[in-house]
Specification:
This protein is α+β, with helices and mostly antiparallel strands. It is 29% helix and 28% strand. It has an 8-stranded antiparallel sheet, sandwiched between helices. Strands 3-2-1-4 form a 4-stranded parallel sheet, with helices on both faces.
Length: 366
């Protein structure tokens, strides 16, 4: 089987390496050779992952069987449109991918009947915020935690409006009622409309950088057993409302008064290497499962689920962009089971979220 991965960052590297273990011939494309996936793939070509015409030509020329991406909200809609156009296997429609990539469309598709939805406003120009404060202001269609602000007044909304809007490709922002509670990451897997696998983990963010991840901890302890039950019900219901019937799904949620609320959802593996943590903690390799399901309709990897989560954490090293990487300055615990650096010593940190960017991570038992 020949598989094309869109993007070459560390999260796409994970996919490329797993595919090679499965015996697949790997292809990768990006607008520049600026990530570890470029050298890891069997074939790399410089093609912008948003250039669908060149990608379609590349797919046909090389007889590629699957086009996919991991950890990228930009690439997933492209992969879905190409798959529909060329008759290749895919999990969700391009319309579903679009909805999940546009927060305003996601809120509308979930409807008020979804127990995990929250009040929101979508704005193209400055206007009166009617949903109350505090609130979260963010671009309606950006990724990577760009342009996100917690606002406490109309003045703060107007102060940060232009900065948030500039990260939106469609020139829109969304204002959502702030949910005061612990953040939770939810990794799930759908098979024919049923949530067959779901693990909720505590999500710790950097206090000085709203929304930016510091660590994931499994099993999550920031919520009760009743909230855990609701998490699964809300996640499965949301997937069915939007149309994610098969494949991986990732949610960011918050739990307030023991009730989960959806902050983000997307029909893909997360961008935080959680498959690596969950494989060690729960026994299920979500990366392998995703490609086995997509390539040969095999979901037997789900049988590896132990039903329990071994206590573990995934911790990110982060650093301000445009500064210089120094691996020796990073503290690596002696009991770490795995670690990975995004940069070599001496490299300049590229701006991704533009505030405090990931430069590597490690996994260890608790």
């Amino acid at each position: 089987m020949k598989v094309l991965i869109l993007g070459v960052a560390s999260v796409q590297l994970d996919a490329i390496l797993e595919l090679k273990k499965m015996g697949c011939e790997t292809f990768a494309c990006a607008m520049a050779k600026d990530g570890p996936g470029a050298d890891a793939a069997d074939h790399f070509d410089i093609i912008n992952v948003l250039d669908e015409e060149k990608l379609a030509e590349h797919i046909c020329k090389n007889g590629i069987d699957i086009v996919y991406s991991t950890g990228s909200d930009l690439a997933i809609p492209v992969a879905c449109r190409l798959s529909e156009r060329l008759g290749l296997p895919h999990f969700v429609s391009s319309n579903v991918a679009y909805i999940c990539n546009h927060k305003n469309s996601m809120r509308e598709a979930l409807t008020k009947e979804c127990k995990g939805n929250i009040p929101y406003q979508v704005l193209e120009e400055k206007a009166t915020v009617t949903i109350g404060f505090p609130a979260i202001l963010k671009p309606s269609d950006a990724q990577g935690q760009r342009g996100i602000f917690k606002i406490n007044s109309q003045f703060e909304f107007e102060e940060h409006f232009d900065e948030a809007k500039k990260f939106s490709r469609e020139g829109k922002v969304i204002v959502e009622r702030y949910v005061d509670g612990p953040e939770v990451s939810v990794n799930g897997y759908m098979v024919n409309g049923v949530m067959r696998f779901l693990v909720a983990s505590d999500r710790e963010t950097w206090p000085e950088y709203t929304g930016l991840i510091h660590k994931h901890i499994v099993p999550g302890v920031a919520f009760s057993q009743d909230a855990k039950r609701q998490l699964k019900e809300i996640a499965e219901d949301a997937c069915n409302r939007i149309g994610i019937m098969n494949g991986p799904v990732y949610f960011q949620m918050k739990v307030a008064d023991d009730h989960p609320y959806i902050i983000e959802m997307t029909p893909r593996l997360d961008g935080c290497h959680m498959w690596n943590l969950l494989r060690r903690s729960c026994g299920v390799n979500l990366m392998k499962l995703t490609f086995s399901h997509l390539l040969v309709d095999d979901v037997s990897e789900l049988n590896q689920n132990t039903g329990e989560s071994k206590p573990m954490e995934l911790v990110f090293w982060c650093q301000e962009p445009h500064t210089v990487m120094d691996r020796a300055a990073l503290e690596l615990p002696k009991d770490a089971e795995y670690h990975f650096y995004y940069y070599e010593t001496g490299d300049t940190i590229r701006p991704v979220n533009g505030r405090y960017d990931k430069i590597g991570y490690y996994i260890r038992s608790l």
